[in-house]
Amino acid sequence: MHPLSPRLKIITCLALFHISSLSLWTIHNHSLHFQRQPVELLNKAHEYLTGSPRFPVSKNDIGFIFKTGYGNQDKIQAILDTFPNLQNVVLIGDYATRTGTHFKHKDLEIPVYDAIEATLRALPPQRNSTRVRSYEELAAAIAAGDEEVAGSIARAHGWELDIMKWISGLEMGYRLLPNKKWYMLADDDTFIIEASLLKVLSKLNPQKPHYLGKGIGGKHEVNRFAHGGSGIVFSSTALSRILRNPSAAHTASLTGELGDALTTRLALANDVHLEERFSLHFNGERPRTTRIRPDRPCEPIITFHHMSTADTAEFQQKLSGVTSPVSWMDLWTLYEERGLERFITQPFRSDWDHVGVSDRVTEHVETKEDCRRICEKFSLDCLAWTWTAGSQTCHTNPWVVIGNEAVGKVTGVVSRGVKMLRNVSTRSCSRAGSREPVNSQHTEKNRIQDFNYYSSEN
C-alpha cells in the first residue's frame, strides 16, 4: 500500500469521526445501456437532453477559475487546450507568471494570478504562520530562478498552500470575469465536459443562490462539503453573497485543513447551501476508473479528475465529433468496442480489469469460474469481478469501470447484471428528458461510499 498523504490522513480522520460502520454498497433501480454506437447515433440518443432550456445559458455565460501551482505547471496546459474560448478562464496559483512565461493557447496568453499574495494582502502581517513561511520561501526561490528548490518546496507544501488559494481565487475570478451567470472552480487536472455542464445549468436560475458539486463528508450539513477536484459551481447570485465578507475565511485558510470544506463553511455562513441532488453530475475519477453505477445511467457527467496529459488527449480523441452532453453510460460507448452483452455468451475477458479499486476481496479462489460465482451470489450487490491467477484472489464491486490492461487477470460482468443494466436503462433513459435531477438521499451507506470514492484518489 502507498503511504497516506497528509491531506488524505486528514480526510480519513474526519470521515471516520462522522461515518458509522455500515454496508458499503447501495444499488438503485436505474441502470445503464451499453451499446457501441457511431458518434452521430450517440448525439441522436441525447436529443432528450437538448430540449428547450428553462434558463438559456451559453459557454460565454460561465467563468472558469482553475487552481494551479508552481509544482503543477505540466498539467494545466493540456486542460487549457480543451477550451475553445480562454477569455472565459482565469488561472490562480501560489505564484504569478511574468511576461514571456504566461501559458498560451493559439494566439492568446493566459497569466497565472497569485491568489496567496491576495490572501495575505487581506490579512494583518502573519509572522508565525508556517504556511506563510512556506509561501515566502517558494516566492524567494522562484525570484532567484532556483527551479530545483522551488519545485521541492512546491512538492512538499503545495497541498497546504492550495488551501490559501480558494477564497482569494473566487474573488479574483469574480472580479476578472464580471457579469457571468455562473462561476466554476476546478483543479488544474479537472476535465470539464461543457455540453454536460450547460445542460445541467440550463435547468437552474442564476439569479437564485445555487451551489453545486460532489457532496462528501459527514452526516450533518455543517460537516459536508463539495469536493474541489470534481469541480464546484456557483451562480453569480450565490458567489456575490458568499464574497460579501470573506475575512474570517481568509484567516481560517492559514490553519484550515481542507480548502473545499473552508469554502462550504463560508457559503453556509452566508445562507448558501450545497444542493446535493446535483452531486451525481460531478465526478472525481479519470474516465477509465470512473464507477459506472446503476443509479445514474442517463444523467450528464460534467467532470473527470486526476487527468494526466495522456488521459486528456485520449478522452479528447474519444470525444471527437460528440457535441451532446455525455452521460455515465456513454463512457462504455465511447471507450469499448466490446458491448457488455458479449459477457452473456463470452463471460471471461483475459488480461483486463473491469473492477478497479475494491475493498471486497476473497482469497484462495482457485479458478476464474469460482470468482464469477462469488459475484453472482451477491445478487444485485455485485456487477463486476476480477480474478488474479497468481495470487488466487477475487475482487468484486457493485459497479463497472472501463478499466485497463491487466496481465494475469481475468474479468467479467455477470450475466444477470448485463441484462438488468440493459433493460432498465432502455426504459429509464426514454423518460430522462422530463425527469428532474435525482434527489440524492445521503444515507450512511452513501456517505461511506462517497468517502471511499474520495479517499481512493492519489
Description:
This is N-acetylgalactosaminide beta-1,3-galactosyltransferase. Pathway: Protein modification; protein glycosylation. One of its GO terms (cellular component) is membrane. InterPro entries: C1GALT1/C1GALT1_chp1, Fringe-like_glycosylTrfase. Its EC number is 2.4.1.122. The chain has 458 residues and is an alpha+beta fold. The chain has 2 domains: 27-51 and 283-442, Hepatocyte Growth Factor (3-Layer(bba) Sandwich), CATH 3.50.4; 59-281, Spore Coat Polysaccharide Biosynthesis Protein SpsA, Chain A. 36% of the residues lie in helices and 16% in strands. The strands form 5 sheets. Strands 5-2-1-6-11-8 form a 6-stranded mixed sheet. A 5-stranded antiparallel sheet has the order 13-17-15-16-14. α3 links the parallel β1 and β2. The model is unreliable at 14-38, 41-50, 431-448 and 450-458 (pLDDT under 50).
Largest sheet: 6 strands, mixed
Distance, first to last CA: 12 Å
Question: Hey, roughly how much beta strand do the residues contain?
Answer: 15-25%
Strand segment tally: 17
- Counting helices, strands and paired strands, the structural category is alpha+beta
